[in-house]
From TrEMBL:
Keywords: Membrane, Transmembrane, Transmembrane helix. CDD domains: MFS_MosC_like (cd17393). It comes from Pseudomonas versuta. This is MFS transporter. GO terms for molecular function: transmembrane transporter activity. The lineage of its organism: Bacteria, Pseudomonadati, Pseudomonadota, Gammaproteobacteria, Pseudomonadales. PROSITE patterns: MFS. Its main location: membrane. The keyword Transmembrane helix applies.
Length: 383
């Protein structure tokens, strides 16, 4: 099959912006639907924290391996086809994640689930860069805000269904129906092409691109801790019921959504540098509060503060990637996406090993210290 002509005169408009927002929603919705299922999977397979961390590493491996491949496929076949394929992989894996009780099956399913997430994440970020550039205005915070909207709907929605008495499998059936409905709405207006630039789909980041990628890794690591470990922490350390454990991620996603949906205004008023500095400090304080303060109610407030702090750091960093001249944009964006999302997908596996060696509280406090480093870095990064 011949490559799609990327030198097309077509300019993305409002319908393409709408499809980009829905695609980000799908990515957040599918990912967050897994959060309330983690304690159930842990109990079904009889896993300790170290083994659970190893399984989560399989999810991260599938995603990280898929991301650069997705960039190549999007350039050849277009964002539309690749996004559809990744979404179908997510829908295929979710029912198994809700029912699998053996470690080998969980390993395979988490790998496929991670691959689907990686394909969708990488491709929608590529489409977002193209659509934002065509619009002539800053839209990245709004796009990422829809990812957070999906996170709220996925985590809180599945938690609500479980609290109403539905089994994990039937809760996931509802998730799949809604995901496919959103895909049918978005697909006709997804871009039929990929990057408008030429070059390899992936390259090892260096210079300022590597620096930005490491900052993305840290912020996404904090988000991954909320996704994969907040429910476990609330059930084991704060004695909250399993059916309500997803409220931790929901509190984080709610404030992150509010921050991102108003992010363009916030960045314009405070400046990109202050957004990074203040955001890193707020997130660090919130995570420390959630870890050290007694009571699950205070922990939820801490997770909400983490969401406020993290909300606009990554969109600002994506904008900074577009301004740098060390690497071409079409190479830097997939490289940064892969390195950044390693935090949300592979990082939580490391949290499991740290928790096994010491405690989950120690692991969370280490992330808080890394977020302080992000705040310090914001003072020296040119954005």
């Amino acid at each position: 099959m011949t490559a799609i002509n990327t030198q097309t005169p077509f300019v993305p408009g409002r319908l393409e912006q709408m499809s980009t927002r829905i695609a980000f929603f799908i990515a957040g919705f599918g990912l967050a639907a897994w959060a309330p299922l983690v304690p159930y999977a842990k109990a079904r397979a009889g896993l300790d924290e170290a083994t659970l961390g190893l399984l989560l590493l399989c999810l991260g491996a599938g995603s990280i391996l898929a991301m650069p491949i997705a960039g190549l496929l999007a350039t050849r076949f277009g964002c539309r086809r690749v996004t559809i394929g990744g979404t179908l992989l997510i829908c295929l894996a979710l029912p198994l994640l809700a029912t699998a009780g053996s470690i080998p099956l969980l390993i395979a399913t988490l790998f496929v689930f991670g691959a689907g997430l990686g394909i969708v994440d990488s491709t929608v970020n590529l489409q977002a860069v193209i659509v934002e550039r065509a619009s002539g205005r800053n839209m990245m915070s709004g796009f990422h805000g829809m990812f957070s909207v999906g996170g709220i709907a996925g985590a809180a929605g599945v938690s609500a269904l479980l609290a109403l008495g539905l089994t994990p499998l039937w809760a996931i059936v509802v998730v799949i129906v809604l995901t496919l409905a959103a895909l049918l709405k978005a697909a006709p207006h997804m871009l039929a092409y990929g990057s408008e630039s030429t070059g390899p789909a992936f390259a090892v980041p260096h210079g300022v691109v590597l620096f930005i990628g490491l900052l993305c890794f840290t912020v996404f690591l904090a988000e991954g801790a909320m996704l994969d470990w907040s429910a476990v922490f609330l059930t084991t350390e704060k004695q909250i019921g399993e059916a309500y454990a997803g409220l931790g991620y929901a509190a984080f996603a709610l404030t992150m959504t509010a921050g991102r949906l108003t992010g363009d205004t916030i960045v314009r008023r405070l400046g990109a540098r202050r957004v990074i500095v203040l955001g890193g400090l707020f997130a660090a304080v919130g995570l420390a509060l959630a870890t050290l303060a007694p009571g699950w109610e205070v922990a939820l407030a801490g997770y909400a503060l983490v969401g406020i702090g993290c909300s606009n750091i990554v969109p600002v960093l994506y904008t900074a990637v577009g301004k740098q001249t060390v690497m071409p944009e079409n190479i830097a964006v997939p490289a940064i996406t892969t390195l950044g999302y390693a935090g949300i997908l592979a990082g939580p596996a490391a949290i499991g090993f740290v928790a096994h060696a010491s405690s989950l509280s120690i692991a969370f406090l280490l992330i808080a210290a890394m977020l302080v480093a992000v705040a310090i870095s914001g003072r020296i990064l040119k954005v």
